[in-house]
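Need tokens for this chain, all 426 residues.
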Amino acid sequence: MTTYAPTRTVDVGIRALDELLSRLEPERHDVGAVLIRQGDVSEFALFLAEGTVAVFAESDYGRTQLASLEAPRLIGELGVLAAFPRTATIEATTPLSVYRLSRSQLINVGEAAPDFLLSVIGQLGRQLDGMNRAMSLYGNALSALERREFDARILEDLVHPSPQLVTFGTAFRRFAEQIIDKRRQSDELASAALIQRSFLPDRDALKSIGAALDLRADMRPASDVGGDFYDYFPIDESRVAIAIGDVCGKGIPASLFMAVTITTLRSAAAEEQDVAAILAKANANLCRRNDASMFATLFFAVVDVHSGELEYGNCGHNPPYIISGGERQKLPATGIPIGLMPDRPARSARARLGRGDTLVLFTDGVTEAMNPAREEFGTARLEAMLDETADASPAALLSEMFRQVDAFADGAQQSDDITGLTLRLR
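Here are the structure tokens for all 426 residues:
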């Protein structure tokens, strides 16, 4: 057993604590180890025998370092004795040697040496005093500015603050920096989301087709920007192109590749006549100089609204469904995701939509949505929902899909983008 040297607790000055530590085995921790986490129940205190730790406050704006503590030092005793949750997170910044003390052990020390409890109260008092002094100084400074009267002593304290004020001021500055940084990131994400939305088609995009087609689409990103996308646009007076896809990855990189994919598809559709040629050209363009190795699953189709002929290519995407007379038909994959291999474009295939038939497209955010028990919504639930809504309008069907996914998730955080597109020939 490691022998403990009482001289290490000279700053605490409590013999009963020294005696307790001499009977315990120290714990060793590496750099980065989390000793105490903010919000946890305070079940133990730590005596820091060797090393240095950092104290962090966690908030909605991020993490801010409040202080750095060196051995020898007692940590976390206030929360243990008062039985309230941890108010900060403590991590090792150097290799550590620490002793873990339970609440009962601390109480025993306090009963054997009341001076120990007085020292704990004194430490709390010093912390409150430092905070009160800082709040008082900054409050008086702001009041003086409002009155246009500035006391020279306040200026001196601000220019040459005491150690307590330096600690408080540093923490305050770090909090401010975190808020500014989060605000900047939020503004950037909001701009990216706006740009991404601008790439999605407008309801008026199919005006030229008139009443022959009933189409609805919606996307709900898991974060401000996502990797899912959908698109639809007329090829000529009787044919409409539709697409739905899911880019690998998340965030701004995925949203950028999504925008490039939509632009590439539209460009290829303007130059080529059939689906296979469109996908081949789009795939080749996406593979060119794709240093980030991004790719996307994609279902792309051209529908003749008069004949109901459907020519499509499924590039590794979730198989869509054609709902006809209460029966379901899947449209399986005809190739690998686009952007992976320039010499492996997807094949095309054909199907037919009758009057009143519904085409249902979706991304894996639907089938892979999870509830709090980490169960997936799954294909079976989706198919049951499609059977229940076989006669519903495209708008009602899409709305019901999102509603049932939300009900299944039961408040669990959305982990992936959710996108759907429904189409019916009138």
